[in-house]
Amino acid sequence: MLKGISRQIIEVIQTENPYFERAFLVVRPVCQEMPAEKLDKAACRFLEETSPHSGLKRARQQKCFFGLLFLLLGGALGAALTILFFLL
Questions:
Q1: How far apart are CA 34 and CA 1, in angstroms?
Q2: Whole-model pTM above 0.70?
């Protein structure tokens, strides 16, 4: 629901989001005098940052990183214990 008639609203039709068809962004009164191109770029950047897939990609990368880290640490610990076992 949109209230007020003196507000500037940006409608983004191509959200590239599997869940949402359109987005309506209300421009702050302080920023209404900015060029339209700058507001459009800011709106697209905002929607890209709030994409549901951006968090999934980051979480997958972190999971992969920590899995590899634990694998390397486990291998180093196993090698150290093997060397200690054969030296003693």
A1: 25
A2: no
